[in-house]
Write a structure and sequence with these properties.
288 residues; mainly alpha
Length: 288
């Protein structure tokens, strides 16, 4: 049996040939929507309507020491989410809980709006875990087995997606590029989790994954912090920002697991080729 093709980065704009009609109908429409969500919709765009200004500029104004605190909080949040991902995600979910989780994240975000940076080390892990549980529900609805460590870590992987606003920070920022960068760390972590009944986030193999995901997650968190720092927002604004924060990652998760579902049906090479064709052709508007 041949080894599956790894998700190696494909240069932006380079189209991989694909047979016409390889993916069609609703599957093609779903892939088009996934491309749009993963490549063209950012947290900055989502939150701009909430605070009425561009987040990219505001995030750059965060002082260096504060940015350091944000990065540490982001890694702490991913470590907490990892503990949940490999230890306590429920294997079944009776219904779609996305709205419930967004509301819960909004409540936790109200503290961020009221107390500012001082609440971040507590609020961020809490809201991240809430969002992770919603991501797991989305994965289940896409036919994923949450009992599989690789799937649980694919849920965690969502927090590394969508950090396109400051693409000077990472050379590779497209969806498949990020998956390629994380592939080895995710694979090693999944193997480690499968082989060990007691898993600690401090294990070197897991620390590598936490760091890689946390660094990218921190870019979006810095924009969340910048939005919640706008003086006129207060607690209500903080809740609105966190609601948008949860909605952003739920959208990425839905797209991520659509791609994975199609990969199981058509094969990784076929799906990636069609994805790159849609991305290069700019033809995702038809799949709104």
């Amino acid at each position: 049996m041949s080894e599956p093709t790894p998700n190696l980065p494909v240069p932006r704009g380079e189209v991989v040939p694909v047979d016409d009609g390889a993916i069609g109908g609703e599957d093609l429409a779903a892939l088009g929507r996934a491309v749009k969500a993963l490549e063209h919709q950012t947290f900055a765009m989502r939150i701009a309507n909430t605070i009425g200004r561009q987040l990219g500029t505001i995030a750059h104004l965060i002082p260096g020491p504060v940015r350091g605190l944000v990065d540490k909080a982001a890694e702490k949040a991913i470590a907490a989410a990892l503990d949940v991902a490999v230890g306590s995600l429920p294997r079944t979910a009776p219904r779609d809980t996305r709205r419930l989780h967004k509301a819960a994240a909004a409540v936790s975000g109200a503290a961020g709006g009221l107390f500012g940076m001082s609440s971040l080390p507590v609020e961020l892990p809490l809201s991240t875990i809430i969002i992770l549980r919603s991501i797991a529900d989305i994965a289940r609805q896409s036919g994923e087995d949450i009992a599989d460590p690789a799937t649980a870590l694919a849920c965690l992987e969502v927090f590394a997606l969508g950090a396109h606003e400051r693409d000077d920070t990472f050379v590779e920022s497209g969806y498949f590029a990020v998956r390629g960068v994380l592939a080895k760390a995710v694979s090693e972590a999944a193997k480690f989790v499968a082989q060990n009944t007691a898993v600690e986030a401090g294990s070197p193999v897991l620390v590598r994954l936490i760091t890689q995901i946390g660094t990218r997650f921190g870019l979006v968190v810095s924009q969340k912090v910048a939005a919640q720092a706008v003086p006129i927002l207060g607690a209500a604004g903080g809740a609105a920002v966190n609601y948008a924060f949860a909605e952003h990652f739920q959208s990425l998760a839905s797209a991520h697991f659509v791609v994975r579902r199609l990969e199981r049906t058509y094969g990784k090479d076929t799906v990636r080729a069609e994805y790159e064709r849609l991305l290069a052709g700019g033809s995702t508007a038809a799949y709104a």
